[in-house]
């Protein structure tokens, strides 16, 4: 009797866990943009840019993802991100900026591998990018919901 109750409880738990987070997504490509990040901690209302995600859904699952970040004026944060006037004037700042920039690809790869934004791990030093990524992904997936 105890084995039957334990088996029944396990089955009910498994069903409840499966039903909670599953959403059906329409196949297609979806893009979304995060809001602009504002660094209020430093007493500035000046933004630090935004992120854009492009997600491809195939057979109801995330099959591809790209994530790029941009300055407020639309300039891509690329190999020049962290330079001043085209030059590396502060090596530490430039290296941190480039690590944060590299995290964008990491986030996109994790999303495809794990197929859930809740399973994507933040990268140390790229928390702002992670927050932008998460916001943009949630928006894109909302557009893809059936």
Q: How do the strands and helices of this protein lay out in sequence?
A:
Elements: H1 2-21, E1 28-33, E2 37-38, E3 47-58, E4 61-70, H2 91-114, H3 127-144
Antiparallel strand pairs: 1-3, 2-3, 3-4
Helix pairs in contact: 2-3
How does the overall form come out from the CA principal axes? elongated
Straight-line N-to-C gap: 42 Å
SS summary, helix count = 3
Mean of pLDDT = 85
Question: Could you please describe the fold and organization of this structure?
Answer:
With 146 residues, this protein is an alpha+beta fold. Helix content is 42%, strand content 21%. The protein has 3 helices and 4 strands. The chain has helices at residues 2-21, 91-114, 127-144; strands at residues 28-33, 37-38, 47-58, 61-70. Strands 1, 2, 3 and 4 form a 4-stranded antiparallel sheet that branches. Helix 2 runs parallel beside helix 3. The N and C termini lie far apart (42 Å). Residues 1-21 have low confidence and may be disordered.
